[in-house]
Amino acid sequence: xxxxxxxxxxxxxxxxxxxxxxxxxxxxxxxxxxxxxxxxxxxxxxxxxxxxxxxxxxxxxxxxxxxxxxxxxxxxxxxxxxxxxxxxxxxxxxxxxxxxxxxxxxxxxxxxxxxxxxxxxxxxxxxxxxxxxxxxxxxxxxxxxxxxxxxxxxxxxxxxxxxxxxxxxxxxxxxxxxxxxxxxxxxx
Length: 188
Hints:
By secondary structure, this protein is an all-alpha fold. It is built from 5 helices and no strands.
């Protein structure tokens, strides 16, 4: 039981971290390119923080969902193990995507402007288009290996996908408005 608890905690922690990181990046993406101001670092930071805050709210909502699922299960320990196993399969797809995304962001933020622009156009742009597919691949992997727990896994990944879609729509709407309303701080 200790091994299961440890891997369950590791899977849950990794998924929570990825959810909040993803939301922060969605918030950043929502304002990126929508403001013509050169000095928009304040807007970019705010967008990342708002996105992370929305990600935390999504994690809390999903925690309530999984709490209800476990409370309703005949055997909560087995249900938890099945959900953790499904989450581990999701991490395989999401982890690879995250590594590539974070590496490209590192180039974007640290490298000279030309290299950063190249990373944005050749890597981050296509990854944004692939994100829904990666979410579906991770979800399909979670359900495919769930065995007799597939109905719970299917319901859970559906709830997760709806939560992520709502999060993205909310942040895109917020980002469009925030970019329109943004005015850079006065020069000192």
